[in-house]
């Protein structure tokens, strides 16, 4: 994967997906020049049958029409990368926290839409990748809202850890520090958290990578263990979808 300091995490992931043969909808407030170069390299619709393509849809995370636009453009959605992030300005309006709207509420709502879509289209094996932050594990009085917003995402991913086992939807999160990251791996798909941090120096970087299994957080059993109602609940979701009122 290319250096994220040159591309940004989202664009680096998009380029990797395109290189692997996936078509990509880039949803953002605007396209930066490097993203424009990517869409120009992979025009949509593709000039060759079966070739990957990329297109852009101007998106505010409070607006969900891009999902419909993506399905209309490509026919189906197999992978969702929840990568939006922001911080509030010092003069932000009282009572409105853009950090939580963009970093937390938006990704959670997109995940709900994606999961519902995959439950209605069982032939598609969904893949949900969240981008949180090492800030989800640490605390600072300087940026408490940002760290809290990322910690909330980590908690949601762990709460959804039964998706693959019970309905076949892969679900995982990466927690990068202020550094470039490697691409995510196929085995990270069941509520795992992948922590990545660059140590050393910019001239001689060393990538430290650690996978945190969800089960490590529980002394004797995972949250899907015997004695919980989680399995019955997920079976109901698998059978009836998220739209059931039962």
Automatic annotation (TrEMBL):
SUPFAM superfamilies per record: NAD(P)-binding Rossmann-fold domains
Entry superkingdom: Eukaryota
Entry GO MF terms: oxidoreductase activity, acting on the CH-OH group of donors, NAD or NADP as acceptor
Alphabetic keyword roster: Oxidoreductase
Stored Pfam families: adh_short
InterPro entries assigned: NAD(P)-bd_dom_sf, SDR_fam
CC terms in the record's Gene Ontology section: cytoplasm
Family listed: Belongs to the short-chain dehydrogenases/reductases (SDR) family.
Name recorded for this polypeptide: Short-chain dehydrogenase
Organism: Colletotrichum navitas
Organism ancestry: Eukaryota, Fungi, Dikarya, Ascomycota, Pezizomycotina
């Amino acid at each position: 994967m290319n250096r994220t300091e040159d591309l940004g995490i989202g664009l680096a992931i998009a380029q990797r997906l395109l290189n692997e043969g996936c078509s990509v909808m880039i949803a953002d407030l605007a396209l930066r020049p490097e993203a424009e170069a990517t869409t120009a390299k992979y025009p949509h619709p593709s000039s060759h049958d079966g070739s990957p393509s990329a297109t852009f849809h101007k998106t505010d995370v409070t607006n969900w029409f891009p999902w419909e636009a993506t399905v209309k453009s490509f026919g189906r959605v197999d992978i969702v990368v929840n990568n939006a992030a922001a911080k509030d300005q010092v003069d932000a309006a009282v009572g409105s926290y853009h950090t939580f709207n963009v970093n937390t509420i938006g990704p959670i709502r997109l995940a709900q839409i994606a999961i519902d879509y995959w439950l209605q289209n069982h032939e598609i094996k969904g893949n949900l990748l969240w981008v949180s932050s090492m800030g989800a594990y640490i605390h600072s009085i300087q940026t408490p809202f940002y760290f809290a917003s990322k910690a909330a995402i980590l908690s949601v991913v762990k709460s959804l850890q039964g998706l693959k086992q019970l309905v076949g939807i892969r679900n995982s999160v990466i927690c990068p520090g202020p550094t470039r990251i490697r691409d995510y791996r196929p085995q990270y798909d069941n509520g795992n958290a992948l922590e990545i941090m660059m140590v050393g120096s910019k001239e001689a970087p060393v990538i430290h990578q650690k996978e945190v299994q969800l089960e490590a957080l529980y002394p004797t059993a995972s949250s899907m263990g015997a004695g919980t109602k989680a399995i019955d609940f997920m079976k109901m979701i698998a059978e009836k979808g998220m739209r059931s009122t039962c």
